[in-house]
Write a sequence for this structure.
């Protein structure tokens, strides 16, 4: 079986590139730049959208919180990605919250401009629909992993995907830089269980651990540990 890419990742960079390539003059008139500090919330679940957001710098998490206060992270969002357009298409309140994992710079574009693109640019709409389908596939695949794979297997999968995510950042130093709490909320386990498994992977020479940072040393070994081969 080919190893599935895209898990825990949110990537629609092609939309942002298309937007600025074709509508740079228009976006300059309607966009506003805001800055978020680490842990600051961009928007909360249940709020109706009034804007679309483009991440210019930093990393954010897409998550929900259950009645017991337990957080579950669906995906991470990196620079040059668009957030919130799917909710505009469906005309519903946000089903998730988004907050900053690092200090972030976000471009805010009002929804009226995006609605005008829905009506006037069929190619842009097709690109949005294609990205929505990819997001749905990733979400479905992730739900399958949470339901059917052990914590060790899920941890191995997360390390493979997070390594791919963080090494593609413009300021990457080759390490996964994510708190243990956020990492455990991606996997769907406790911090204590995650720490034990990371220790095992370190002993097995699959990863290197430097405080909160992790470096993948043996990706094939992690794929084997994940149960995909």
């Amino acid at each position: 079986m080919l190893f599935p890419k895209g898990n825990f990742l949110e990537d629609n960079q092609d939309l942002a590139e298309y937007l600025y390539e074709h509508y740079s003059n228009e976006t300059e008139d309607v966009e506003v730049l805001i800055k978020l500090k680490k842990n600051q919330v961009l928007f909360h679940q249940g709020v109706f959208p009034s804007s679309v957001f483009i991440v210019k710098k930093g990393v954010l998490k897409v998550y929900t919180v259950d009645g017991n206060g337990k957080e579950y992270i669906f995906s991470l969002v990196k620079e040059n990605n668009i957030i919130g357009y799917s909710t505009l298409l469906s005309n519903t309140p946000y089903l998730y919250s988004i907050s900053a994992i690092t200090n972030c710079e976000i471009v805010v574009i009002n929804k009226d401009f995006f609605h005008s693109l829905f009506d006037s640019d069929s190619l842009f709409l097709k690109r949005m629909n294609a990205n929505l389908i990819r997001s749905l596939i990733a979400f479905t695949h992730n739900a399958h992993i949470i339901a059917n794979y052990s914590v060790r297997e899920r941890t191995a999968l997360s390390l493979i995907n997070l390594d791919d995510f963080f090494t593609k950042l413009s300021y990457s130093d080759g390490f996964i830089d994510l708190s243990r709490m956020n990492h455990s909320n991606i996997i769907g386990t406790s911090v204590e269980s995650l720490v034990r498994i990371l220790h095992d992977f370190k002993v097995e020479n699959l990863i290197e651990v430097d405080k909160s940072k992790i470096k993948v040393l043996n990706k094939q070994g992690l794929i084997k540990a994940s149960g995909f081969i």
Helices lie at 13-30, 85-90, 111-120, 122-148, 151-167, 180-187, 191-203, 219-226. The CA atoms of residues 23 and 117 lie 10 Å apart.
